[in-house]
């Protein structure tokens, strides 16, 4: 059994509220209200610790049903020995007097956990002690039930500070679990734990422990992931949930069982199981949620965990009965809602193991529309062989592609191609095969072969056009973007004008990517947004790209290289959030990889590392290998900048085991280059980058070439690459290209004014590490030129930018810091001078001459650009300058 420490975090607002209230003498009680498991006791314990931390006496009280059976049972240990309570009037007064102490000014802090369970006698005594000023209370109260007398007596009124404790939000859960587990959770794992727990601290803790014990929550050293399937429970969690559900009566339980088996049902269907009043009572008790879905009102269980607990107690016969009755209800209103066919088919399969073939096919199409590819495969595999058709094979094959099962997909799609009754159908199946072979199997040549063979066997000009577009689509993302765009730039401007929606969507997505790779970023941004809007409109007609959000993935790349880094990051994270509940693994993996690239170019290596790790883990788990060469290379580069050489070296080795796709040519070797640079081998790093830039140039990808050449400039080769960067900038639009040229040119010229201007330009587009390097170089140049004040100002700007790049070190930053690092003696004397000691006092303390002290001070003043002890003390008091006080290496 795992026993992880769970730190107290994410309650800053509540702590501040308590501190403000407790400082006021008029506040007699701080009451923490909230549902079971939300963390009331943990918060109250922290408040109590703070209350008694200053020397105040304190005592803890735990109310319970058992303690309430005996009057004063909960607070017996609070009553001083010898006090006679047979006469409550005098007895209560004696308790107050004795607690107040000899001088009558002691005021105890009393923590009462579960105040709502406190007995009446204990309540009366505490009320008397409050009125006498002998105690102050910190109490917890569970919400969701009737208001107890103790709550009315002790936790109401103007003297009470009420804190309503809410479950953790998604961000709070992420930060808490990262603190508990020591590493971030994958995006999907976080979502599943948050949804299952509802942010309830106790539920979340039990879920995490259950998953760790079952081995379904695991870490690869970078990120924690959850295996697919149900979340394992624990005995304690089961007891908690069963206790929560035990209070409902028979009618209410019928509603809960229906929801547990069928998922969301209409309000009318839920009410027909019992009554509208019963549903309302369940809603008020927090056991169900009633929500609006367009014009339909749905009822669902408020916690997925409730469904697990309820299903465990149902027999197979009872489950089947509930499912068949719900099918009858849907049939009573003719299944007129769009998703009714899908629900009925799922219910039939669950109840009887079979369903009408026509219903299964319709349901599979609906499941494809909501991108539930596992459900598509399940439904179609239930079809009798005699009812299998070309359409069902194509639909199943496409879903297998999306699930990353390329070998089975190839078998099914080949069968679809063989069963095709028309040339158009054969071409449709052939194109899905090419996407499977290229994107999932990573078999580029085989994908082109399938396309070319199909092209040789068609006679229709329309089909020839489709296959030509499909070939161009593959070329755009496999290292030939310029050639591809010569064909794709002629793509019909409207999806309505095309004969094949799927081919248009694939071609449009590839065109966006190709435009971004060749530096036509503004056109790529417009193309990506238009393609997404078109895809949304025809989503229910498509095979091809898994989800409309797939059109946004190349948009992230385009926004990044246009210099709109913040927006690129937002779009990538939006994709990941929107797809977290779908089977669209391929799109999620690419979005994570591109989010990592955004972090890398922003200079936030820790964020880049987190998202590259996400891409790697999800890619491996869902058989999506195409992005892994880039992701492993990015992870290696990020780890190198963070000083984690072992991880970087291992990642470089893994990167080499994956086939290079061809797009972003050369960028996969960034990790190799920056590992060399981090170890001080700058010449070897530049050689790696130069070879990589040559690959990008040979494949006509100026955006990648510019990125790689800029890194050569950062590692001492600015004079060699500035000319080529300027040439490339003429082919790349957006703000990043000229900013890179200005950066390299100012480094080559060693011009502090131009370097500082470059720093501001790069900072404005969000390239914070490059901005920090430009500012640091300006500082070093001004210091060499004998302008310490300007050097100091540039160093302050460097600190502003590096704060956005936590933990990162680069050769430029390290060399710039070395130019103004104090010697051991300068550091010692500067600190004493900053403390307002005179030179004579410093000399006596260090056994030096006054002249030696003054010489060291002059050197320190020059390095910082200050003239007086007051200025020295001021600058050394800033946290930005704490690095200056370190010992030189």
Describe this structure in words.
The chain is mainly alpha-helical and 889 residues long. The protein has a 5-stranded parallel beta sheet with strand order 2-3-4-1-5, with helices on both faces. The protein has a 3-stranded antiparallel beta sheet with strand order 8-10-9. Strands 6-7 form a two-stranded antiparallel ribbon. Strand 3, helix 5 and strand 4 (135-142) form a beta-alpha-beta unit. It is flat and about 105 Å long.
Give a quick set of tags describing it.
five-stranded parallel beta sheet, flat, 6% strand, 889 residues
Estimate the helix proportion, in percent.
55-70%
What is the makeup of the main sheet? 5 strands, parallel
Annotation, overall tally of beta strands? 10
What overall form do the CA principal axes indicate? flat
Determine Rg (CA atoms, Å).
34 Å
Strand order of the largest sheet: 2-3-4-1-5
- Strand portion: 5-15%
Question: How far do the termini sit from each other?
Answer: 45 Å
Q: On the 0-100 scale, what is the average pLDDT?
A: 89
Helical region count? Answer: 44
Low-confidence stretches: 879-889
Structural class per helix/strand content?
mainly alpha
How is the secondary structure organized here?
Layout: H1 12-22, E1 29-34, H2 40-52, E2 58-62, H3 65-68, H4 88-100, E3 108-113, H5 120-132, E4 135-142, H6 149-154, E5 160-164, H7 170-181, H8 187-197, H9 201-214, E6 217-219, E7 224-226, H10 235-245, H11 250-262, E8 265-266, H12 267-273, H13 276-284, E9 288-293, E10 296-301, H14 304-312, H15 316-332, H16 340-352, H17 357-369, H18 373-381, H19 390-402, H20 406-419, H21 423-440, H22 444-456, H23 461-476, H24 481-488, H25 501-517, H26 521-537, H27 553-561, H28 565-578, H29 585-602, H30 605-621, H31 628-641, H32 645-655, H33 670-678, H34 682-698, H35 702-729, H36 736-749, H37 752-765, H38 768-784, H39 788-802, H40 811-818, H41 824-834, H42 839-846, H43 850-864, H44 869-876
Parallel strand pairs: 1-4, 1-5, 2-3, 3-4
Antiparallel strand pairs: 6-7, 8-10, 9-10
């Amino acid at each position: 059994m795992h026993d992880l420490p769970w730190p107290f975090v994410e309650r800053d607002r509540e702590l501040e509220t308590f501190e403000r209230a407790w400082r006021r003498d008029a506040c007699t009680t701080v009451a923490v209200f909230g549902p079971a498991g939300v963390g009331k006791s943990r918060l109250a314990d922290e408040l109590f610790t703070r209350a008694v931390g200053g020397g105040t006496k304190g005592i803890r009280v735990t109310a319970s049903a058992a303690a309430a059976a005996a009057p004063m049972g909960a607070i017996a240990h609070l009553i001083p020995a010898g006090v006679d309570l047979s006469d409550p009037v005098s007895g209560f007064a004696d308790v107050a007097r004795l607690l107040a102490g000899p001088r009558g000014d002691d005021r105890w802090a009393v923590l009462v956990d579960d105040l709502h369970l406190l007995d009446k006698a204990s309540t009366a005594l505490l009320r008397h002690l409050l009125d006498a000023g002998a105690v102050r209370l910190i109490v917890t109260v569970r919400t969701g039930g009737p208001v107890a007398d103790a709550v009315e007596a002790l936790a109401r009124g103007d003297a009470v500070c009420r804190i309503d404790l809410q479950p953790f939000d998604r961000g709070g859960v992420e930060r808490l679990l990262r603190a508990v587990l020591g590493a971030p959770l994958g995006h999907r794992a976080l979502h599943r734990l948050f949804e299952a727990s509802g942010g309830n601290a106790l539920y979340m803790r039990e879920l995490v422990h259950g998953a760790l014990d079952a081995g379904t929550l695991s870490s690869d050293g970078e990120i924690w992931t959850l295996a697919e399937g149900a979340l394992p429970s624990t005995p304690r969690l089961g007891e908690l949930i069963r206790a929560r559900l035990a209070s409902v009566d028979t009618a209410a339980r019928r509603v809960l069982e229906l929801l547990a088996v069928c998922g969301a049902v209409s309000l009318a269907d839920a009410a027909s199981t019992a009554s509208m009043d019963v549903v309302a009572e369940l809603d008020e008790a927090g056991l169900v949620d009633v929500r609006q879905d367009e014009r339909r009102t749905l009822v669902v269980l408020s916690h997925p965990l409730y469904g697990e607990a309820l299903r465990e107690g149902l027999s197979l016969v009872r489950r089947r009965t509930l499912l068949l009755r719900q099918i009858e209800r849907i049939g009573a209103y003719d299944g007129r809602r769009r998703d009714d066919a899908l629900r009925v088919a799922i219910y039939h399969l669950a109840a009887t193991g079979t369903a009408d073939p026509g219903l299964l096919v319709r349901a599979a199409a609906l499941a494809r529309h909501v991108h539930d590819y596992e459900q598509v495969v399940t439904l179609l595999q239930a079809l009798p062989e005699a009812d299998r058709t070309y359409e069902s094979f194509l639909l199943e094959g496409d879903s297998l592609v999306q699930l990353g099962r390329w070998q089975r997909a190839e078998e099914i799609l080949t069968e679809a191609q063989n069963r095709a009754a028309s040339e158009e159908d054969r071409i449709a199946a052939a194109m899905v095969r090419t996407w499977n072979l290229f994107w999932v199997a990573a078999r580029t040549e085989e994908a082109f072969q399938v396309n070319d063979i199909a092209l040789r066997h068609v006679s229709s000009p329309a089909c020839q056009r489709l296959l030509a577009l499909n070939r161009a689509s593959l070329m755009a993302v496999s290292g030939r973007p310029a050639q591809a765009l010569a064909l794709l730039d002629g793509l019909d401007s409207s999806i309505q004008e095309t004969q094949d929606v799927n081919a248009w969507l694939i071609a449009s997505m590839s065109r966006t990517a190709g435009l971004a790779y060749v530096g036509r970023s503004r056109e790529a941004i417009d193309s990506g947004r238009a393609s997404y809007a078109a895809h949304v409109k025809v989503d229910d007609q498509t095979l091809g790209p898994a989800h409309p959000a797939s059109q946004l993935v190349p948009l992230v790349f385009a926004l990044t290289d246009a210099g709109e880094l913040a927006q690129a990051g937002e779009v990538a994270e939006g994709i990941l959030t929107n797809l977290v509940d779908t089977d669209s693994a391929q799109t999620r993996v690419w979005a994570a990889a591109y989010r990592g690239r955004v972090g890398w170019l922003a200079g936030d290596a820790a964020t880049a590392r987190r998202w590259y790790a996400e891409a790697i883990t999800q890619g491996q788990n869902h058989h999506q290998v195409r992005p892994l060469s880039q992701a492993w290379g990015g992870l290696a580069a990020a780890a190198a900048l963070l000083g984690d050489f072992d991880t970087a070296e291992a990642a470089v080795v893994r990167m080499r085991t994956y086939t290079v796709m061809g797009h972003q040519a050369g960028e996969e070797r960034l990790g190799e280059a920056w590992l060399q640079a981090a170890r001080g081998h700058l010449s070897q790093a530049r050689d790696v980058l130069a070879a990589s830039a040559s690959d990008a140039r040979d494949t006509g990808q100026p955006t990648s070439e510019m990125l790689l050449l800029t890194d050569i400039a950062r590692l001492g080769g600015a004079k060699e690459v500035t000319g080529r960067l300027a040439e490339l900038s003429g082919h790349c639009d957006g703000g990043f290209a000229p900013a890179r040229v200005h950066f390299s040119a100012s480094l080559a010229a060693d011009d502090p004014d131009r370097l500082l201007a470059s720093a501001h330009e790069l900072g404005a587009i969000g390239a914070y590490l490059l901005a920090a390097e430009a500012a640091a170089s300006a500082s070093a140049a001004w210091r060499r030129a004998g302008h310490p004040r300007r050097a100091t100002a540039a160093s302050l700007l460097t600190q502003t930018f590096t704060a956005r790049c936590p933990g990162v070190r680069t050769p430029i930053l390290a060399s710039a810091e070395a130019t103004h690092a104090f010697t051991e003696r300068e550091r010692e004397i500067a600190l004493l001078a900053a403390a307002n000691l005179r030179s004579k006092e410093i000399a006596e303390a260090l056994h030096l001459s006054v002249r030696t002290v003054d010489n060291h001070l002059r050197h320190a003043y020059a390095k910082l650009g200050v003239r007086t002890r007051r200025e020295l003390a001021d600058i050394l008091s800033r946290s930005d300058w704490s690095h200056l006080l370190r010992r030189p290496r």
